[in-house]
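Handout, section B. The chain below has 262 residues.
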Amino acid sequence: MRNPRHHNFWTLLLGWVFIGQLLTACSLPVLRPPEPSPLAPASRQLLVVQTQDWDSVAGTLQRYQRNVSGGPWRTDGPPIPVVVGRNGLAWGIGLNAQGEPGNVPVKMEGDGRAPAGAFSFHSAFGYAPPDSVPWIRMPYLQAIRTLRCVDDTASRHYNRILLEDSTQKDWTSDEAMLRPDDQYRLGLVVEHNWGQRTQSGRGSCIFFHIWAAPDKGTSGCTAMDPAAMESLLGWLDPSLNPLLVQLPGPEYARLQETWGLP
């Protein structure tokens, strides 16, 4: 006959072992699986913008290129000084699938921050007619008087560039693409919060363009001196699927391996 005292001892011991394992498991951090790289293997041109931290205005832009799809990246030209949003960077909506990392700014309309993440480019734009800039290979929009970018969060055209005189207007706020200054004389549309990914209020009208001054941040764009903007537009080749990665330095280091960044 089994001794009931022995039975109770082993039952109690196994119970404590189970509880100990459960407590240990609960105390371990939840590890998020690595995010797959948002950089398509077919992409052979890459722009990397880095700032010191989330609140920095000054940054650098480095061009990279590779000879074959999925091959190693190599630098192409020297670093270019840039400025980002007047309040720094915030996590945007782009090619990367992962949600916003915790405890960092999230890009919102009117926050004065440029979007962080990985992005495609939509088109170039400028004041000159298309036939006078044949050296720009990206699709090109001439910024005429009626060309607008809609930043009204209530509009069905939110974050769209369109001709005001040929669109049924449902907005009260927009940005004129033909400005009285030189800042949009040459530029590039960044596909932040774009297309099917668009969320109202998450930021609109994000561009690369000419800066107002080397120490003055933007409303949410990335800006540089005129010569650098012209050189960049001459370098970009849509057949090479150019992409943008824009991150604070520590975030870049965290994602460098999993995203396959140079």
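Note. Residues 45-259 form one domain. Compare this with the example in section A.
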